[in-house]
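Input record, target 12 of the design panel.
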C-alpha cells in the first residue's frame, strides 16, 4: 500500500451495500486515489476459529483527486458509489494528515494495527481468539503486549490474559 502525503483533496464517499471494492476499482480506473482500511477479526466456522478481514469503516471509502477542479460529479456517478459525505452544499473534505496517520497505522495488507492506549476500567470487546465476541473490563496491562481483562463467564468474573491487538475499546 502506498502512503500519500500529497496535497490533493480527500473526500469520504458512502458506497452502496457490498460494493466497496467495486467502487474502489472503478475510481482507481478513473485515476482517483482511494484508501479502504480493513481490520482483522476472528470468526467461527464449523467449530474452528479463522482470521478474516472486514472494512474498518463499513460502507465508506476515502477518495482523493489530484486535480484542483471539483471532481464530485465523476465520483458520485461512479458505479458502486452512493454519495459523498456533505456538510451543506459541498462535499466535506478530510484533512490529509488524518488519511496519512490511518495509512501509517495499516500493515502491508491494509489492516489497521495497534490500538489506542488502554486504561484500567476501560470497556473492551474481544475481536479475535477463543473469546471472540465477549465484552469485559481492562484490569491491567501485562508484559509482552498482553492485557488482563475481567470477563463475565457464566455469572462469574473471570480474569483472562488477552493479546492487546485482539481488543477493541467499546465505550
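The sequence produced for target 12 reads:
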Amino acid at each position: 500500500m502506498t502512503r500519500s502525503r500529497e496535497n490533493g483533496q480527500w473526500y469520504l464517499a458512502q458506497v452502496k451495500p457490498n460494493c466497496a471494492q467495486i467502487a474502489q476499482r472503478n475510481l482507481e480506473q478513473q485515476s482517483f486515489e482511494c484508501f479502504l482500511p480493513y481490520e482483522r477479526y476472528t470468526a467461527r466456522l464449523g467449530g474452528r476459529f479463522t482470521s478474516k478481514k472486514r472494512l474498518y469503516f463499513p460502507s465508506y471509502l476515502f477518495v482523493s483527486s489530484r486535480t484542483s477542479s471539483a471532481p464530485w460529479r465523476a465520483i458520485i456517478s461512479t458505479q458502486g458509489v452512493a454519495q459523498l459525505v456533505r456538510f451543506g452544499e459541498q462535499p466535506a473534505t478530510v484533512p490529509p494528515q488524518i488519511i496519512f496517520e490511518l495509512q501509517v497505522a495499516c500493515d502491508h495488507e491494509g489492516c489497521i494495527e495497534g490500538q489506542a492506549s488502554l486504561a484500567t476500567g476501560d470497556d473492551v470487546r474481544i475481536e479475535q481468539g477463543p473469546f471472540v465476541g465477549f465484552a469485559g473490563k481492562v484490569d491491567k496491562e501485562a508484559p509482552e503486549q498482553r492485557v488482563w481483562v475481567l470477563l463475565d463467564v457464566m455469572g462469574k468474573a473471570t480474569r483472562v490474559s488477552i493479546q492487546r491487538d485482539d481488543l477493541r475499546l467499546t465505550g
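The mean pLDDT is 87.
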